[in-house]
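re: ur question from yesterday

yeah so i grabbed the chain u mentioned. its 204 aa long if i counted rite. heres the sequnce exactly as i have it in my notes:
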Amino acid sequence: EGILHADVVGFHAFDHARHFLNASKRILGLTYESLMGGLIGVRFHGKKVLVTMSNVSIETDMLDVAMALPEVQAGAKALKEKHGRAIIAGIDVAQGLSGIQLKLLAFERLLMDYPNWRNDVVMVQKCLVPNTRLADEADTLRDIRASVHRIQEKFGIEVMDYEEIQGSSSLPMVKRLVIWMAANVLLHTPIREGLNLLPLEYVS
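ran it thru and got these structure tokens back, copy pasting raw so excuse formatting
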């Protein structure tokens, strides 16, 4: 009911809006209707609450300009030359639901099952530590560090380029673009998350 006191309720995806509409109908017995302009109106206490869906995107023009910067071009070239292997990249927050641990287990399985890749691939993983969920971050980092250590012990230090970045939940755009331009694959494996624009940056 608190949400329905607003004039407009916005969601990133239709699925989220659909769940909200179903909850309004089943829990509160409210009706809704389609309106002009692709909006949906929910009748609540004599007024229409507009429900909208709006997909957030990225500024591709800005990314194109940034990718042409000399420091981005040079950084991507240096990262490729540093490893001389196919690069699987990831930038994730060090929290349990980010799925970094599952990603590392999958990478370890790849190296176990396909030994021909051991000298031809590297995982470049940036692990962001915002220091906002201290217990979760500490547990997650402990597991991640153990996995990185185990993978490097089994297959060599060259297969993992792992870095923790303290006090931040995002990497500056220039640093992200260096990684995206050098990477052959972006591996993004969250268990559950909200909106994340990094995959859109990578494919642009």
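noticed a couple things. The beta strands are 8-11, 32-34, 40-44, 47-53, 86-93, 121-129, 160-166, 185-186. also The radius of gyration is 22 Å.
anyway ttyl
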